[in-house]
Amino acid sequence: MSLVAALRAVEVAYGGRPALGPFDLALAPGEIVALVGPSGCGKSTALRLLAGLEQPVRGEVVRTPGRGETSVVFQAPTLMPWANAAANVALPLELSGVAKAEARHRADEALAKVGLGQVATLKPAQLSGGMAMRVSLARALVTRPRLLLLDEPFAALDEITRRKLADDVLALWAETRPAIVFVTHNVEEAVYMAARAVVMSPGPGRSAGETEVAGPLPRPAQFRTTEGFRAAAEKVSLDLDRAMAGRAA
Amino acid sequence: MKALTTILPPLALLAAILGVWEAACRVLAVPTYLLPTPSAIGAALLESLPLLLQSAWATLLMAFQALLAAFVVAAPLALLGALSPLFRRAFGPLAAAIQVTPVVAIAPLFVIWAGLEHPERAITALGGIVAFFPIFSGLTTGLRAADPDLMRLFDLYGARRDQRLLRLAIPSAVPFLIEGLKVAGGLSIIGVVVAEFVAGSGGAQGLAWRILEAGHQLKTAQMFAAVLVLGVLGAGLYGLLTLAETALLKTWRGR
Predict the structure, then answer these.
(1) Options 3.30.565.40, 3.30.565.10, 1.10.3720.10, 1.50.10.10; which CATH number does B51-253 get?
(2) Considering just the CA atoms, what is the radius of gyration of chain B in Å?
(3) Shortest CB distance from A122 goes to which of B152, B153, B254?
(4) For residue range B215-226, what is the model confidence (pLDDT) as tens digits?
(5) pLDDT tier at B118, thresholds 50, 70, 90
(6) Contact between B157 and A80 using a beta-carbon 8 Å cutoff
């Protein structure tokens, strides 16, 4: 099996306290995997390992994407407040040496793709929460990453906005098919977004069950009412309950 | 109507205080060198207004030069501190020492160094020392105040050190710099006035000298008039700096 990235028996500790692992995760090209777990189970840590932003104390991290081929979307939009939407989206290109005019042109294209062509000159404070998140998404996609890491990107949004964004992310994924790791603590969202949902136990996070989600990606209309969706959500819920109970015991 | 109810009470109180003051001075026959009547102060103010305005301008100019000098010195030092933790640790205590040393205590030294013919140089330098710390500490804090997730993004995209400084640290520091400049602006006025007092020389022709001069001649009404102009200058400057802060922050974040 070809790999985009993998974590092999990785362990991370903060100040001597184990935070993650041992934890394994292998990611095939174009695959969407959701990491589901309670707060503090090390989901975000696993993401930072995959991004190469952090090193494990034990175990191995395999990363095939080169420089600029990995993108991260955080829980907050994490935009530069002093720069307008287009300048924010152009940042990754400009940092890696793409000429300014070319970078701005590609940023405008990326903004148009997330439906924000008209707000290119607005600054983050002038955008709604959902719009700011779209700008963040456009910035992540502008480099055409092979690996896209989403760290609870919809957590701060209302239900309607988050459903719309979930569909948009999947539609955008279908265009270039990057491998996606999607961190969430929402079971329905995990099942909707991913072909495979990995449940993590409370910290130090370990795998507490994996669920394959049948059905096409991007999701067809009414997918949430299908039997496949319900069955997968039930299995993930069960895994999660068991993981939490294991901690209580 | 609303504006009227907010403006009227303080005005009425002020009028009442002035009225009681005026009446008490007349009834008790208080010597005018001890406490002049408000009307005498008003007359003194009108009489010497051109001179007072000239002095206010001189004070303002020295304060502005002090602010500029403080910024020119503080900005590179803060940048150096952002680039080198060693320098930051080394310079921190020195900066704090400068801040806690009363300007009155070091003023005589500066007057000697600047030479008796150039008190304005000593005064500007002392105002600059007072204005230095808020700018330096604001910038030092601001240069390290970037969003940690934005720093991670810069890591992720392999940003170089200069890109990190120019495109992240410096823009993130702007609101802190504006705040520091606002505080420093008010302090620089206080700094130059105190310094001119200590210099005790008419060479700089600032407002402090007008107060000293009137005091030496027991022209108490003139003293009051000069203090009044100084108060208006300080309040006006504070208002202007606050407006500038609001406008600059609005430009920075677009709202």
Answers:
(1) 1.10.3720.10
(2) 23
(3) B254
(4) 999 999 999 999
(5) confident
(6) no
